[in-house]
Write a structure and sequence with these properties.
Length: about 160
Amino acid sequence: MPYASVIPALKLPRQLTGPFDYAVPAELAGAVGRGSVVIVPWRGRKVPGLVIGVNETPAIDAKNVKPIAGLAALERAPDDLLETFAWAATHYVASPATVVQCFIPEVPKRAMPKGGGAEARAAAPAKRGKFAGSVVRYASPEAKTAATAARGAAGRAGGEG
């Protein structure tokens, strides 16, 4: 079983420099590698983390290693970006985890909707006397940009704006 060296995206004291070892589950073996953004258990909650390496043996006793909970993103960060994180931590006398936290987007607490090709979903209607609009969650920033551009084009075609 491979083990990933992960820097969690948390504000940690400088003395907790990490990385921390996590077991790579069989279903994620091909997807997790250097530069992957993963979800890992940390003190009873799940947080994003950045994989900086994959090894065949952990640095601690294997029975104490927890598994990675999942992938936060399909794309991997390039090596030069990982080197920039290391440089920034050293240059600014910060823990690597704090630097990683600055660059990794926050992972949504709820899973995004799947299936049907739906890029967004509307939330329940607002209560009377409160916010009159609706909240829309998009599956990705690209989906939001595309939807916004389409609405703008429709508005211009209809004589608005």
